[in-house]
Specification:
By secondary structure, the chain is of the alpha/beta class. Helix content is 29%, strand content 26%. It contains ten helices and 20 strands. The strands form four sheets. Strands 6-7-5-15-16-17-14-18 form an eight-stranded mixed sheet. Strands 9-3-2-13-20-19 form a six-stranded mixed sheet. Strands 1-12-11-10 form a four-stranded mixed sheet, with no helix packed on it. Strand 19 (326-329) and strand 20 (336-340) form a beta hairpin. Helix 1 packs parallel to helix 6, helix 1 (15-27) runs parallel beside helix 9 (346-361) and helix 3 crosses helix 9 (346-361). The radius of gyration is 21 Å and the shape is globular. Bound molecules: flavin-adenine dinucleotide.
Length: 390
């Protein structure tokens, strides 16, 4: 039996794999490209379990630019991603992100804000009085203020994923339902994949888009990534008292976040130091009742009466080196490209990363240079912090 050959094989068909497939096929329609996804229901993919937020409010300029592009893409998404007359409905709601800060966080927040404004972002400093005026339910005592980005917001992550996938397929990308068991290499060159059912596939270019499972599959090529799955939990609440209008994604100095969800509900979460590493998807209502609810009710006393409607757990692919994306060709393995370690903000980074990878692989002019996220820094152990200090 002859081995099937491709130009490009992508491991994982979540938002990264599907977006990369779309941008590649859009630029080079003759490519023979396949995306290998073991679970087309995406039940455990981070993409469909995320809070689906996009924000320009980062303190590393490249992360801000990535989100500026994402917002521009999302604003036009329903038109540009239509197939024939069929438009995807992604429910992009630009209800804003409000990062609250106390004295300790004020200088850093103001510095990041100046940088964001310098890049043309709409983002402003809000005093505690302004916050109280806009959102009277909030208890602003002890806060120095906050930064508000009116263009930030949330969207239907599943719909965006399905649209990238459908559009990539309409451009002749293949989606194969199978598990990649190994990356095949010849000395220091990637040459294909071994699939659990279909067996071997050959290609000179492989992209690892396996999300929280990226490390497991990279090691089969002898590549060790500092990427670890960490469980994060989200809760959906029905509060007795409702705000007058939508609440922005509001982030407390402690990291607790909440925002309006459709149907008059509230979505809430918090990354915690004790969040376990590993592939666990169980969620814990005790965490909500004993820790998160008291914290929420202290900030919004009106939310002391509510119903916990549901919850879920998903995985962050945490880059333990520096919490930033790892994007580019692995320096010691020709043809093995990475789009990994997004650490909680990969959904909004998929358009820019997908486009960048397509330009890099096809050797085309780079629109937004993301080489700062290159994997060389792993080998040289040079972390890239959020404010760009190395
Ligand atoms: C609770 C939570 C909240 C989040 N909130 C946000 C947010 O507000 N904004 C934001 O931008 N990001 C957020 N994120 C992060 C975001 O969801 C991820 O960074 C992003 O979805 C990663 O996409 P991906 O395609 O890399 O991974 P995934 O969506 O996990 O896709 C990887 C795919 O690879 C497949 N796969 C893995 N191994 C194999 C194999 N060997 N063979 C075949 N298939 C394989 C998996 O089945 C999976 O479908 C959040 C994540 C969580 C868990």
């Amino acid at each position: 039996m002859t081995t099937k050959s491709f130009d490009i094989l992508i491991i994982g068909g979540g938002i990264m794999g599907s977006a990369a497939a779309y941008y590649l096929m859009e630029k080079e329609p003759h490519l023979k490209l396949a995306v290998i996804e073991r679970d087309p229901t995406y039940a455990r993919s981070s993409t469909t379990l995320s809070a689906a937020n996009v924000r320009v409010q980062f303190s590393l300029a490249e992360n801000v630019k990535i989100s500026q592009y994402a917002i521009a893409v999302l604003e036009r998404f329903e038109e540009t991603m239509a197939i024939e007359e069929e438009k995807p409905r992604i429910h992009f709601r630009q209800e804003g992100n409000l990062f609250l800060v106390n004295e300790t966080g004020q200088a850093a927040a103001r510095k990041a804000l100046v940088m964001q404004q310098g890049l043309g972002c709409q983002a402003d400093w809000w005093s505690p009085e302004k916050i109280k005026k806009q959102y009277p339910l909030y208890h602003t005592e002890g806060l120095s203020g906050g930064t508000f980005g009116p263009k930030d917001g949330h969207f239907d992550a599943h719909a965006v994923l399905m649209a990238y996938k459908a559009k990539a397929r309409s451009l002749n990308a293949q989606f194969i339902n199978d598990e990649v068991s190994r990356i095949k290499v010849d000395k220091n060159r990637a040459i294909g994949l071994e699939l659990a059912q279909l067996g071997p596939l050959a290609a000179p270019c492989i992209i690892n888009c396996a999300g929280a499972w990226a490390t497991e599959i990279a090691i089969t090529a002898g590549v060790t990534l500092p990427v670890m799955p960490v469980k994060r939990q989200v809760f959906v609440l029905d509060t007795a008292v409702k705000a007058d209008g939508p609440l922005p994604l509001t982030i407390l100095p402690s990291g607790l976040y909440f925002r309006s969800e459709t149907g008059g509900l509230l979505l809430l979460g918090k990354s915690m130091d004790e969040d376990p590493a590993g592939f666990s998807f169980t969620w814990d209502d005790k965490r909500f009742m004993e820790i998160l609810w008291p914290e929420l009710a202290e900030f919004v006393p009106a939310f002391d009466r509510l119903k916990l409607v549901r919850g879920w757990a998903g995985l962050y692919a945490v880059n333990t080196l520096d919490g930033n994306a790892i994007v580019g060709e692995w320096p010691e393995m020709k043809g093995l490209y990475l789009a990994n370690g997004f650490s909680g903000h990969g959904l909004q980074q998929a358009p820019a990363v997908g486009r960048y990878l397509s330009e890099l692989i096809l050797n085309q002019p780079i629109t937004l240079d993301l080489s700062i996220f290159g994997p060389e820094r792993i080998l040289t152990n040079r972390p890239l912090s959020e404010d760009g200090l190395v």
